[in-house]
Amino acid sequence: MAKTANLPPNHFLIVSIIQLVIFSSAFIIPTTTSAKLEKLTHLHFYYHNNIAGPHATAVPINPKIQPVDLRDPASLFGRLTIADDPENSTVVGSAQGMYGSASQTEMSFAMVFNFALTQGKYKGSSFCLLGRNPIFTNPRELAIVGGTGAFRFSRGYAILKTYYMDMQTGANTIVEYDVYIRHY
After folding, report:
1. What is the pTM of this model?
2. Which Gene3D superfamilies does UniProt cross-reference here (predicted)?
């Protein structure tokens, strides 16, 4: 019968920590530039969404047979809409993505959007917004989960407030966005 070594009780913990350090260091990517400090950027803009008329910027890709009733969330449940919404005032970018009705009990969308900026300091950069959007709740918060260009490795949040909504048709909506992005 083999004799086991008399190891201190915390031996497994020490070995695990050493393995963790060795494993973690394998994923450090060498760089020729010095480390950049993280910045916080605040963006404020209005998102215009138009789902009707000759200049619609968002269209349902699986329209339901029954009519939509904004007072009845179940009438929208499962509807998926694709959007490419440029701003109607001074254009600073476009919101490209999709949202789908994700609740049978309240008017709430699951949103996946890329905000592509075409003007100003961040021209050519984009950030990604993801989350649950209960559209009749003011304010509401969604997550920023990444980006490109100046917003590479970004994270943060967006505070949304419905500024205007055509309650008869739900076709035209303007939403105020206050976006806070941490990036390098």
Report:
1. 0.68
2. Allene oxide cyclase-like (2.40.480.10)
